[in-house]
Amino acid sequence: MEGEASESNGVALIVGVTGMVGLSLAEALNKPTALGGPWKVYGASRRPLPTWFPSFLLHQYITFDATDLENTSKTLSPISSQITHVFWVAFQLRDSEEINVALNSTMLTNVLTALRFSSPSSVLRHITLQTGTKHYMGPVFDPSLLEQLVPPETPFREEYPRLPFPNFYYALEDLVASLATRFSYSVHRSSIIMGASSRSIHNSLLTLSVYATICKHEGLPFRYPGTKYTWEHFCDMSDARVLAEQHIWAAVTDKARNEAFNCTNGDVFTWKSFWKTLCLIFDLELLPFDEEEFDIAESMKDKGEIWDDIVEKNGLYKTKMEEIVCFGALQTVLKFDFQHVCSMNKSREFGFFGYADTLKCVGMWVGKLREMKIIP
């Protein structure tokens, strides 16, 4: 990476540490080569630490309800004078984007209030904010607004104007920008994230892995639940390790302060090639594209007990299928009528050159999910 690191010996608070990017951030900050290091790392989430999370990565794990200011302030008060950097990779989702705006704004406001405004000895210097391509597409997962959206221009570029719809990404960006005189910030707009966690709301690879596992277990055809357009046209993804690398780079690089960056792997793929890769990994037959519409959410809605049986027989980390999959969201993505791709030019111009080979990473991440005993 180009650019001099602006600070060193940081103390990090990763909010949302048990998610895909949170875990990768904890791993990256512990590396001897981490920019701005050596780091002292605190991790926070709403629930107890899952057994698959390597606790040695954290100086301390903290649980609190970020929607509750009193609980947040009481929990963070003992460390508020230590935290120099917040890595914000947490969010909650509801069906209504208006509710998402209010809920996520409250969470971020409460944490910043507890760290920056309630502590006279605060040393907070920077916050990195994880968002995504919904910034360019609009609230695609809000059923009341989906029909009003129009296909966006691609590749997505950071300078594109905002859309006239509620979007909690906009609200969070505006919140940190309004406080830029007190500390700096950076915004990281990911594509579809590829990583390992049972705690992420939208984990497409885990969703597909569960689907593939059930198909293999039941002898079902591994059908593609999207359109011919997405089967044949380009898409991109964001490896959680690349995202973590960009967060850390921006957190300690002067030139990146108060800027927004797309963050993808830097390559593109077709879903046909991605499906072929999954078939090889899970030993399933690659079927030709079927013009008959296939509703994966409907097909999988009654498979919870089958997943319970797979978990029990293989001694996996205890999960409920409905808590770890996002069939509805995945189906929405696989029916886009535009190529879901981002430009990485701004990142490169500013000195960030992280990348990953998407199709090569699929096997690595599936292997990681297996090592963590989340899938068999």
Describe this structure in words.
The protein is of the alpha/beta class and 376 residues long. The protein is built from 15 helices and eleven strands. The chain has helices at residues 20-29, 69-76, 97-117, 134-137, 168-178, 204-218, 228-232, 240-251, 271-282, 296-300, 304-313, 321-324, 327-333, 345-350, 358-371, and strands spanning 11-15, 40-45, 60-63, 85-88, 126-132, 184-190, 192-194, 234-235, 237-239, 259-263, 269-270. The strands form three sheets. It has a seven-stranded parallel β-sheet, with helices on both faces. The chain has a two-stranded parallel ribbon with strand order 7-9. The longest helix is centred in the first third of the chain and has 21 residues, at 97-117. The radius of gyration is 20 Å and the shape is globular. The two termini are 37 Å apart. Residues 1-7 have low confidence and may be disordered.
What are its keywords?
15 helices, 38% helix, disordered N terminus, two-stranded parallel sheet, 11 strands, 376 residues, 7-stranded parallel beta sheet, globular
Distance between the termini: 37 Å
Low-confidence stretches: 1-7
Strand order of the largest sheet: 3-2-1-4-5-6-10
Number of strands: 11
SSE pattern, N- to C-terminal: EHEEHEHEHHEEHHEEHEEHHHHHHH
The secondary-structure class comes to alpha/beta
